[in-house]
Amino acid sequence: MLIFNKILVPIFIIINPKRTLSINEFQDWRLIMENPVCPIDYRYGRDEIRDIFGENRRLQFLLDVEAALARAHAKIGNIPRSAADEITKKASVKYVKVARVREIENETKHDIMAVTKALDEVCSGDAGKYIHLGATSYDIVDTANALQFSQSTEYLQKGLKELRKTLVNLAKKHKKTVMLGRTHGQHSTPITFGLKMAGFAMEVDRHLERMFECKSRLLIGKLSGAVGTGAALGKNALKLQELMLQDLKLGVEDVSTQIVARDRYNELLGVLCNIATSTERFGTEIRNLQRDEIGEVAEAFEAKKQVGSSTMPHKRNPITSEQICGLARVVRGFITPTYENAIQWHERDLCNSSSERFILPHSLILTDWIVYQSNIIFRNLKVFPDRMIKNMEISKGLPMAESLMTTLVSKGMGRGEAHELMRKTALKAVEKNKTLKEVFLEENKKLKLLTVDEIDYALNPSNYLGASEKIVERVIKKLDR
């Protein structure tokens, strides 16, 4: 409280010399600054994208739309150019303050009316009477949403590109780093760590494609009035809409009701949930590979100061991967209310409004954050090739049973016969706690199928990687840009 009194209040007074804090405003500021509730306010999210959805920037987006509407009217000749110029000049948070909009909304119980009244108060002359002319609230709200989408998805796309580049670099560095493939949680056949990273990189690349395609249908505004007819806008309604949205560099909703069609928002959330699922998959892989009994990779750990556990001094937990996995589930949790919001009564009800105030900022801020955090994980990832080789030895050559089988087939044995021979050989090796090579050599003495050199070649994991290196090189060629 003392810090608030001595620092924050003087700052407010310096910024707003002609305004004094009311008791209610003071309490609002104190509670927000001293006791934030949502972890996005103090724990998760990058400042740049969080700012886009902050109250100040949100107000500015709404004012930008009102100004563009006034300019469109002036171009048509519906209002004086001087009025549009004045509205444009004053449609700024430099003049229209969040605190004043809040005061008015407390009286009117209507957010957009509060914005227009606050803008009217700061406009000189009779310009104020032309504010919001012919529009309905959601002409402004949904168009402002599109402006927020435009800026926030730019940050998200940039983050995805950086993550893709990091994964490509890992694929390039480890295209020959042999490790066990695992299916059903069991040792299968060899792969390379580079191949795993190449698969992750391509997945991120597809998300970039999805985001690009989605934006062509997402960055859409509207100016069509209460039920989509544009009746209050007069005979030039369609031209007004075109001019306003061109000014804002947005597309036009083909047929609207009172709102932009919510299938567009559904698509956005679908893309965000898909990205969140991929990052959780990547994080889960790191968590599993970092388990003590596997130990093939690890998140970076700041040995000087970082603490793994409040009670177990030895712990070095994959906390960032775990954070990503947890937040990805939150993002996916928004998909159900998003789809339900698209089910409106007739030309529109208000059920979407309150939930979208949570869904839109939280889903975009959190998705951007988990992509950003994923990039940090992989950029600083510790990879242990020696441990990967050691882990292959645990199964005593069993993962190479398929390699021996295909070698037998190449020597003329039927595929089914070769499979059955290697199945029995593998079972016998497990039963007798011997290596696959030891048991197969016993069988080979009787059947005289392969030479020792051929057996050794088939049992070398580096010789059974198929087209792994070529696949990785193809990914590098495609994405290393």
Describe, in plain words, how this protein is organized in 3D.
- The protein is mainly alpha-helical and 481 residues long.
- Among the domains are: 137-175 and 186-302 and 315-389, Fumarase/aspartase (Central domain) (Fumarase C, Chain A, domain 2); 395-479, Ribonucleotide Reductase Protein R1, domain 1 (Orthogonal Bundle).
- The protein has 20 helices and six strands.
- The chain has helices spanning 2-15, 23-34, 47-52, 55-76, 81-90, 98-108, 111-122, 137-173, 193-218, 237-247, 263-289, 319-333, 335-341, 351-379, 385-394, 401-410, 415-432, 436-447, 452-459, 468-479; strands at residues 178-183, 186-192, 220-221, 251-252, 297-298, 382-383.
- Strands 1-2 form a two-stranded antiparallel ribbon. A two-stranded parallel sheet has the order 3-4. Strands 5-6 form a two-stranded antiparallel sheet.
- Helix 9 (193-218) runs antiparallel to helix 11 (263-289) and helix 9 packs parallel to helix 20 (468-479).
- The model is unreliable at 1-15 and 309-315 (pLDDT under 50).
Could you outline the blueprint of secondary structure elements for this entry?
Layout: H1 2-15, H2 23-34, H3 47-52, H4 55-76, H5 81-90, H6 98-108, H7 111-122, H8 137-173, E1 178-183, E2 186-192, H9 193-218, E3 220-221, H10 237-247, E4 251-252, H11 263-289, E5 297-298, H12 319-333, H13 335-341, H14 351-379, E6 382-383, H15 385-394, H16 401-410, H17 415-432, H18 436-447, H19 452-459, H20 468-479
Helix pairs in contact: 4-5, 4-7, 4-8, 4-10, 6-7, 8-9, 8-14, 8-20, 9-11, 9-20, 11-12, 11-14, 12-14, 13-14, 16-17, 16-19, 17-18
